[in-house]
Design brief:
single chain; mainly beta; Porin; twelve-stranded antiparallel barrel; 3 helices
Length: about 300
């Protein structure tokens, strides 16, 4: 419990301290400034659902709006739901901030998919341990720690995961070591070993889950890239049979201080404790959906 309180204090106090600085003035990042910035391994702090090795520059504030629709095809998709556009599987709003060029933090809130819970607050800290440099360092490495908390009303059914017998059962966590390398001007790859822990799970589930994320990105030019992201869960065959691995395909576009990502994915939720353990839809059955993220950066004068 002490570890939980410490992590909460670290993330929330950082943002509280920043909000007290009333003299800070932000200006929008212009397109010309972006062109002068060296191209990183990935074009965003996220690849699709998961993090990339990238961090925000010192003093940069980013506002993110993320949205996932319903199934494009399958039993719950098709023309009757306008290929999923009538439905929203999840929505997230977040603020993220670069404390230094290597350390960033973030706070967000998502509706949640209601499987098994909703009304989720999330906080994370990301530190870039190594940066790829020609002739010096062949890879980039980042360490990410995340905390999630559900504040939904407790379910009345005792067997429900969202019953939350104790306050600690509302918490879940993830930690990730993100390793990436850029090859030439176009290709980037990443390997993301990820550990997810949920304090309270169903009888046919496990509290601890290890997943190995992988990603490949192709930069078409200095502003547009295409990415594929996949998280493979390692678990016993006798449990969690109704869940699938998360697979996503995305296009990313950077311009005028904005970062746009449009993607297709079979995962419905946001955050590692949602899209890694609770993806219960299958690409082969048309159970994938359209999603997008709009991120707006602001930087100190």
């Amino acid at each position: 419990m002490k570890k939980i309180l410490f992590l909460n204090f670290f993330v929330f106090s950082t943002f509280f301290a920043f909000s007290q600085d009333t003299t800070v003035v932000y200006e929008e990042i212009l397109d010309t400034e972006l062109e002068e910035t060296p191209v990183e391994t990935f074009y965003s702090t996220r690849i699709v659902n998961g993090h990339s090795v990238e961090t925000l520059k010192k003093g940069t504030l980013e506002f993110r709006i993320e949205h996932k629709f319903g199934d494009l095809a399958g039993a719950n998709g098709g023309v009757n739901t306008l290929y999923g556009l009538d439905n929203a599987s999840d929505i997230r709003i977040a603020f993220e901030y670069g404390i230094t060029d290597k350390l960033m933090v973030g706070l967000g809130r998502c509706r949640g998919t209601s499987l098994p819970y909703h009304s989720l607050l999330d906080g994370f800290a990301k530190y870039r341990l190594l940066s790829q440099e020609k002739g010096k360092m062949p890879i980039s490495v980042a360490l990410i720690g995340s905390l999630f908390y559900s504040y939904m009303p407790a379910a009345t059914l005792l067997s429900d995961v969202a019953h939350f017998p104790r306050q600690a059962h509302r918490f879940s966590y993830s930690s990730q070591l993100n390793i990436a390398r850029k090859f030439g001007k176009h290709w980037s790859i990443a390997i993301m070993p990820t550990y997810v822990h949920r304090n309270y799970v169903a009888a046919d589930d496990v509290n601890d889950l290890f997943s190995l994320g992988t990603a490949v990105s192709f930069a078409i030019n200095s502003k547009i890239s295409l990415s594929v992201e996949y998280y493979n869960n390692f678990q016993k065959e006798s449990i969690r049979e109704k869940y699938f691995n998360s697979l996503s395909i995305a296009a990313n576009w950077v311009t005028f201080g904005h970062n746009f990502t449009v993607y297709l994915t079979n995962s419905a939720g946001f955050g590692e404790v949602q899209f890694i353990p609770y993806t219960n839809t299958n690409w082969a059955k048309g159970q994938f959906r359209l999603g997008f993220c709009i991120a707006r950066k602001y930087v100190k004068e």
